[in-house]
Amino acid sequence: MYTEKVMDHFSNPRNVGEIENASGVGTVGNAKCGDIMRIYLDIDDNGIINDVKFKTFGCGAAVATSSMATELVKGKGIKEALQVTNKAVMDALDGLPPVKVHCSLLAEEAIHAALWDYATKNNIVIEGLEKPKTDISEEEVEEVY
Amino acid sequence: MEKKIYLDNAATTKTRPAVVEAMLPFFTESFGNPSSVYELATQNKKAVDDARNTIANALKAEPFEIYFTAGGTESDNWAIKATAEAYGDKGNHIITSKIEHHAVLHTCEYLESKGFEVTYVDVDENGIIKLDELKKAIRPTTILISVMFANNEIGTVQPIKEIGQLAKENKILFHTDAVQAFGQLDMDVNDLNIDMLSASGHKLNGPKGIGFLYIRKGLKLKAFVHGGGQERHRRAGTENVPGIVGFGKAVEIAIETLKERQEKEIALRDRLINRVLSEIPYVRLNGHRTSRLPNNVNFSFQFIEGESLLIMLDMQNICASSGSACTSGSLDPSHVLLAIGLPHEIAHGSLRLTLCEDNTEEELDYVVEKIKEIVEKLRSMSPLYEDFIKISHIKEGI
Amino acid sequence: MEKKIYLDNAATTKTRPAVVEAMLPFFTESFGNPSSVYELATQNKKAVDDARNTIANALKAEPFEIYFTAGGTESDNWAIKATAEAYGDKGNHIITSKIEHHAVLHTCEYLESKGFEVTYVDVDENGIIKLDELKKAIRPTTILISVMFANNEIGTVQPIKEIGQLAKENKILFHTDAVQAFGQLDMDVNDLNIDMLSASGHKLNGPKGIGFLYIRKGLKLKAFVHGGGQERHRRAGTENVPGIVGFGKAVEIAIETLKERQEKEIALRDRLINRVLSEIPYVRLNGHRTSRLPNNVNFSFQFIEGESLLIMLDMQNICASSGSACTSGSLDPSHVLLAIGLPHEIAHGSLRLTLCEDNTEEELDYVVEKIKEIVEKLRSMSPLYEDFIKISHIKEGI
Ligand SMILES: Cc1ncc(COP(=O)(O)O)c(C=O)c1O
Ligand SMILES: Cc1ncc(COP(=O)(O)O)c(C=O)c1O
Ligand code: FES
Ligand code: FES
After folding, report:
1. Are C79 and C146 in contact (CB under 8 A)?
2. Which of A69, B82, B308, B393 could join B398 via S-S bond, C-beta 3.0 to 4.6 A?
3. Which bound ligand lies closest to the C-alpha atom of C344?
4. Rounded to an integer, what distance in angstroms lies between the CA atom of residue B59 and that of residue C87?
5. Domain annotation covers residue A20
6. How far apart are CA A134 and CA A29, in angstroms?
7. Can you give the C-alpha Rg of chain C in angstroms?
8. Do A35 and B348 touch (CB under 8 A)?
9. Closest Cβ–Cβ partner in C15, C39, C313 for B28
10. Into how many domains does chain A fold?
């Protein structure tokens, strides 16, 4: 069902855990399946993401996308982190089954939520970042056959 | 463990070698169409009749009350749709339960779209149908009660005799989906007042793609699949002779070994339940403690999600399920677990282990150890568990 | 001959040993439910997908347009009933032919009882549908044309391309029952404008109890069997994995060997036809002389009765049929033979011989000898023949 990369990130998820006194924390839930993801960001004074951790209550795809997403934002600037879309995460994992596409949205949204938290705490505006939804109920992802 | 430990016998079972053995001649030697005149075909007709007799005996029914189908799903569809069609002039109301298999539920929903009215009766926290609600649901227009013998997810066995009695007193037909129970539990259609009963070969170590519907004699049910005159003009299509023969063999063995399998599986089941409940925190047994299938165990582990649990078990060579296999791939939590009152996130963390007679204590001890490790690992990555621990600490004033 | 000579391949075929071989691992080793998450199940899912691809290729269709069923009968029921249901708001008229299999005819009759109108178009004396009648039958309310690819009794192959064209021009859906033709004739659903196509495993040396319905993408056909989410939510029920795998294997071989089988069987068929027509008096070939299935031969022997003929052939170890197997046991003369204009008593004396690639000239020569003897014997006991001979003598002035 899952690609080798997905299985790898699922069985050995990178960056699991918490960051105490994190610069930003974002928790999002997926209304479609009830799954929940939380991302912790440690952002330095230059706006670089020094460290990132996650916790996920979700399926194999949710765990793997969390893991891959944290890998993709680690060491990046805020602007670059914003470019890490669910599609980028899926591509990096060599794809997900059609019914699991929505899982990858959790990761994207959780990063955005953590960045929003960071921005709010520091009273800054991040260009291109909108207030995150806490519940993702995206339009039906078209099944691809 | 190198070897796979298969604990998903409610999804499907291994076909017994003796069953395959019995089927083989009907592929390449005695392969004729049983409806034909020549001798090659009459051998097949006899083999089909023998299987029908074996199955009828298992239910204390008559052979001509057994109609072969392509499986449990078709049997359920047939029983419910044909009753609606045949007795629709008497009334348009059907009663079923909230925890039926989708083969029953989706068929009832289809009939609702055709103007029928369906009452879905609640179950209690153990999954037992609320008989008082069932009684109250009966209307003058009720033509059918369809309640499953035993549930496929949580294993709860229903009070079939009481339901049959209720149906009889009120002159309502009673159908039971016995796909999980047939071959695991004793049943007598007369004693239990069952008018229609569905079963499926692959759930009792028989082949896939074969099932039957028992229809009590005298019911005016018509065909659901129209065509040739097979199955006494009630179910058209060239008979699946190897499938029928295999099904017959599987039933023969299941009935012969019923008692000893029950004893063995109940012992294994209870040991597994006791170990998990006592050794893992925040876990709940779903389904009734004693009125349950001998081979069914179903737990909810708080704070973790079922699919992740399954994949990790699979990596340890353990095959299990987190709901009914037919609906995995679906993202909704199981309707059965919701019906017994579990909140969404707990329903999500459910694990079904369904045994067979070949499982050993040693295997199950290994399984318990692996479940422990995996539950711990998944909880350590769960934001829900994190919150829970923090809140407990706050509550405990730490 | 000691060995049975099986000449009833239109009723059912021997499952190829290679097909059984391919199925076996899916009974006792890779037996998982393809809907499950674990690896044991994903192997099965892959095997099912492979079979689906093989079949799709054989039709030049897409894999997701192939839906597995329990056989040709279910496929026919599904196609016709679901079209009626989905397109009933557009119209209530269906066109079919007088010589369809009962799986189509009885389904149409069922729909008539639900308020649909059905036109049963005539065929000519060779069994070919009258295209001008078909054209005239089209109404603004016509939603479906269902005409079989090739007939199971007389082997006549229909002008499918013309029918498909006609349907397309009039924006009517076109279903074809290809149960007899699939695996014997080349077919391309796009070239032929086929919207739905039924086939059955056991007619092409695959297993019984498995079939498929091709449904062109975009058609809004709903499920006929409701339940779990299998077959893209369109056909519920645990997949018959061994059956599907066996069917896939049978199709693979059938396609690979199509040309050479056709050549071989046509040569045998024509030799058989020529010998019987030239060596036995008062015999008629039913069905079209050339537009016919490579393996089908159907004769009417005047003055004799089919069942007696069959039993005597059986005593000589020859398995044949006198109509479709599904309706033998019925005493009515075949609706197909009546539709091509045979009078009752001649229709009664019909014999269908359907070959396979394994038949030899030697076998068929033996069969011709036996037919000769038996026909002579039966005629000598026939009062019809006696009358006929007397009348001829009078006519000839003896
Ligand atoms: C209770 C119950 N009913 C019906 C079915 C459907 O049986 P099948 O998949 O053999 O059609 C199943 C299993 O899938 C079941 O567990
Ligand atoms: C033309 C035709 N259609 C449909 C069927 C039904 O197929 P099955 O018996 O496999 O359901 C048959 C054979 O019995 C047939 O010959
Ligand atoms: S199914 Fe919920 S995140 Fe994947
Ligand atoms: S005399 Fe027996 S069928 Fe006619």
Report:
1. yes
2. B393
3. 4
4. 42
5. yes
6. 6
7. 22
8. yes
9. C15
10. 1
Residue in C202, C250, C38 with CA at minimum distance from that of residue B209: C202
Ligand 1 within 6 A of CB of B103: yes
B103:C208 CB<8 A: no
Residue of C nearest to B237 (CA): C73
Q: How many domains in chain B?
A: 2
Nearest by CB to residue A13, choosing from B315, B381, B383, is: B381
Asked whether residue A32 carries a pLDDT value surpassing 70, the answer given is no
The amino acid at residue C125 is E
- Please compute, for residue B125, the number of CA atoms within 13 A of its CA located in the half-sphere on the CB side: 5
Is position A79 within any domain?
yes
pLDDT tens digits, residue range C307-322? 899 999 999 999 999 8
Chain C residues with beta carbon closer than 8 angstroms to that of A145: 64
Q: Is A1 on the interface with C (CB under 8 A)?
A: yes
Between chains, do B348 and A62 touch, taking CB under 8 Å as contact? no
pTM of the entire predicted model: 0.94
| Cβ–Cβ below 8 Å for C37 and A145 | no
Which has more pLDDT, C387 or C219?
C219
A96 lines ligand 3 (CB under 6 A): no
Q: Name the token pair of C375.
A: 């026909």
Q: How far, in Å, CA of C250 to CA of C244, rounded?
A: 10
Q: Does A4 touch chain C (CB under 8 A)?
A: no
Put simply, whether C37 touches A (Cβ < 8 Å) is: yes
Say which residues have a Cβ less than 8 Å from residue C336's Cβ, sequence separation at least 6: C99, C127, C151, C153, C154, C323, C324
Across C324-347, average pLDDT: 80
Of B198, B227, B254, at which residue does a domain stop? B254
CATH of the domain at A74: 3.90.1010.10
> Mind listing the pLDDT tens digit for each residue in B55-93?
999 999 999 999 999 999 999 999 999 999 999 999 999
Complex ipTM tops 0.90: yes
**pLDDT at B108 exceeding the cut of 90:** yes
User: Three-state DSSP class for C252?
Assistant: helix
Mean pLDDT of C27-48: 89
CA of C224 to the centre of ligand 4 (A): 39
Q: Residue B329 — very low, low, confident or very high, per pLDDT cuts 50/70/90? A: low
Distance from CA of C41 to the nearest CA of B (A): 9
> Could you tell me which residues are beta bridge partners of residue B68?
B212
How far, in Å, is the centroid of ligand 3 from the Cα of C222?
28
Residue A144: predicted pLDDT: 35
A14 touches chain B (CB under 8 A): no
Q: Residue B354 is part of which domain span? A: 5-11+257-397
pLDDT tens digits, one per residue of B285-323: 999 999 999 999 999 999 999 989 999 999 999 999 986
Question: Which of B227, B254, B281 lies at the terminal end of a domain, its last residue?
Answer: B254
Whether C225 and B74 lie within 8 Å, measured CB to CB: yes
Is B54 among the annotated ligand-binding positions? no
Between chain A and chain B, the number of residue pairs with CB atoms below 8 A apart is: 58
State whether the beta carbon of B179 lies less than 6 angstroms from ligand 1: yes
What is the model's pLDDT at position B272?
98
Give me the domain span that covers residue A18.
4-122
| Residue of B302, B331, B338 for testing the chain A interface, max A β-carbons within 10 Å | B331
Strand partners, C174: C145
pLDDT at C46 over 90: yes
Please give the Cα distance from B16 to B195 (Å, whole number): 30
In a shared domain, residues B248 and B264:
no
Chain B residues closer than 8 Å to C103 by CB = 226-228, 236-237
CB C36 within 8 A of CB B9: no
User: Treating both helix axes as pointing N-terminal to C-terminal, what angle do C241-256 and C39-59 enclose, rounded to 10 degrees?
Assistant: 30
Q: Could you tell me if B242 and B295 lie in one domain?
A: no
Rounded CA-CA distance B233/C327 in Å is 10
Q: For residue range A45-89, what is the model confidence (pLDDT) as tens digits?
A: 999 999 999 999 998 999 999 999 999 999 999 999 999 999 999
